[in-house]
Design goal:
CATH class of chain B: Alpha Beta
Order of helices and strands of chain B: EHEHEHEHEEEHHHEE
Helix content of chain B: 25-40%
Order of helices and strands of chain A: EEHEEE
Protein name (chain A): Ubiquitin-like domain-containing protein
Strand content of chain B: 15-25%
Pfam families (chain B): ThiF
Strand content of chain A: 15-25%
Structural class of chain A: mainly beta
CATH topology of chain B: Rossmann fold
Protein name (chain B): THIF-type NAD/FAD binding fold domain-containing protein
Keywords (chain B): Membrane, Transmembrane, Transmembrane helix
CATH class of one domain in chain A: Alpha Beta
Radius of gyration of chain B: 17 Å
CATH architecture of one domain in chain A: Roll
CATH topology of one domain in chain A: Ubiquitin-like (UB roll)
GO molecular function (chain B): ubiquitin-like modifier activating enzyme activity
Number of strands of chain A: 5
Structural class of chain B: alpha/beta
CATH architecture of chain B: 3-Layer(aba) Sandwich
Oligomer: heterodimer
Distance between the termini of chain B: 16 Å
CATH superfamily of chain B: NAD(P)-binding Rossmann-like Domain
Number of domains of chain B: 1
Largest sheet of chain B: 9 strands, mixed
Shape of chain B: globular
Amino acid sequence: MLKLATSVAPTATTTKTDRLRVVCGANTQELEGMLGYTVREVRNNLREVMNIGDDHTVILVNGKQLADEGVFLDGNEELEFKKPAGQKG
Amino acid sequence: MKRVAIVGLGGIGSNLVEPLCRILAYSDSDNEKIPKRVILIDGKAYKERNRERQKFSALANKAETTKEWLELMFTELNIESKPVFVNSNNILALIREGDVIFLGCDNHATRNLVSGHVASLDNALLISGGNELYDGNVQVYERRGGKDITPSLTFQHPEIESPIDRNPAELSCEELAKAGEPQLLVVNLTVATLMLNAFVLWLNGFGPYYEVYFDLQTGNVRPVRQKLTSP
């Protein structure tokens, strides 16, 4: 399982059932122990692994669009960084 | 549904058009949803440098040259060509009520224009595909009885809602002649196949997703599902 590196320690105790599903385009990652991380932290840490670009500006948590990347996660959501549509053809 | 309009006959469109015509010409003739009239729309000409990726028989206008070889293969279909770029002045005449539209263009400005026009129609099916070097997506926008059955192309896609590229109709000859960024045949083919998949599902009454992403590097394909709404 991928473990994120962060400078901000989670403030709550993680549980065995914490499982955050991160989606970008066709790809998904499932991560444990994400309780207390912000959306921004997840983006920064998965930027290269999941190819999350700065142009991925639409963010969905459990299908609902989010305005603020500073929101803390409870560790059991589906977090999607909506991939822009392919431009070429 | 009376007609199929194919907008863009480049890497995606030129590889999609023949299997699509096979479906239209030889599928279940009792299915009233299957149109027999095909409109090919593109204002550009084929270029030799694209031969590896695009299917063509002559270095001439894409719509006209594609019509020439298609109508020899598919005498069951009525095939027309419109050697123009879709723009705000001609879109009313080119894309009409009841059309099925396959959109394989190379810019978001045209996607925005076509999606906005489809939103004004009571009934239409728009299947739009696009790619980057190794990945891409297909979106399915259906209108029925004056309502959105699936979301428009701009839904959760600000790059289509407010495109920074330009409609080819607005570009100079020099700008049009510039080589685009590299693309891969297999990626264009994947987009074309997923567009045809979506069409066949729709013909058979299935509509579980309105968007599908793919990534050739990871081998993943992910549909974006939506609860179906009734008109």
